[in-house]
């Protein structure tokens, strides 16, 4: 049985940057714009039971693939959760409820750990 380790991010867009000419300091007007679910790893029951420090280490090893921060856009990890086989994320559930393919919602990462 595979257990998915899913990290969820929050995205903010800097609306102040839309009219910025690139000179001086960029105006700051950040608005929340949603987020993304990322498949960090598919784990065995044994690996999923190794504890929070191990799981956090997998997430930390993938941060560069999930997070960004510049004058225009910020994306950062809010948290992570284990999803046993058959359990859908919130967004996967919404897609499934509307007859869409829920597998399109979660973005898979390449774990380096």
Mind sketching the topology for me?
Blueprint: E1 3-14, E2 30-32, E3 37-43, H1 45-48, H2 52-61, H3 63-66, E4 68-69, E5 73-84, H4 90-97, E6 107-108
Parallel strand pairs: 3-6
Antiparallel strand pairs: 1-2, 1-3, 1-5, 4-5
What can you see in these coordinates?
The chain has 113 residues and is of the alpha+beta class. 23% of the residues lie in helices and 34% in strands. It has helices at 45-48, 52-61, 63-66, 90-97; strands at 3-14, 30-32, 37-43, 68-69, 73-84, 107-108. Strands 1, 2, 3, 4, 5 and 6 form a 6-stranded mixed sheet that branches. The protein starts with a strand and ends in a 5-residue tail after the last strand.
């Amino acid at each position: 049985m595979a257990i998915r380790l899913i990290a969820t991010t929050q995205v903010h867009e800097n609306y102040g940057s839309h009219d910025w000419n690139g000179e001086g300091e960029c105006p700051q007007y950040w608005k929340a714009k949603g987020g993304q679910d990322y498949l960090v790893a598919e784990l065995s029951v044994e690996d999923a039971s190794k504890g929070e420090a191990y799981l956090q280490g997998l997430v930390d090893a993938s941060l560069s693939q999930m997070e960004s921060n510049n004058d225009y856009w910020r994306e950062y990890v809010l948290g992570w959760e284990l999803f046993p086989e058959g359990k859908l994320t919130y967004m996967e559930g919404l897609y499934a409820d509307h007859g869409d393919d829920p597998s399109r919602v979660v973005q898979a990462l390449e774990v380096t750990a």
